[in-house]
Amino acid sequence: MLSVLCLAAGYIIAGQWIGACAAILMVPAWLFVRKHPDAWLPSICLFTSVGLAVVGRLTGSPPGLMICSSGVALAVWDLLFLDNTMGVNSSKEQIRQYENKHLQALALALGSGLLVTFLGRLLNLQIPFVVMMLLVALLLFGFERIWGTIKKQSIH
Asked: In the predicted model, what is the mean pLDDT of the chain?
């Protein structure tokens, strides 16, 4: 619902009422997919939501709302497939541990992606490509270390 709300709000702010209606029509689609996640329908909803966000951005919708909408749609898509693949094959404790680790990784990825995106919108730095690649490598190394620490704490 958060993804659809961000899409609709972005289109309304831009004065694109047809886009807002298209975004609102995603509500029944996501609800249907939530009940039947086993087919290719979650991927179609993700593709449609991201496509609406791209079109919204091209028509002047606020980038923050479109980014949040796409990020939330991706997270929902990921969680739908997680629920589908987990099924009833494992014990409740194994499922709970795996879900917690997966949710931590998803929150770390989503949060860091949104943070970098918003910082990139605020800062306009002229950095050489080689320096930028070194900074990205350092950032990825830092995230890997953070994830390693989280995994160690969850084992103990």
From this structure: 81
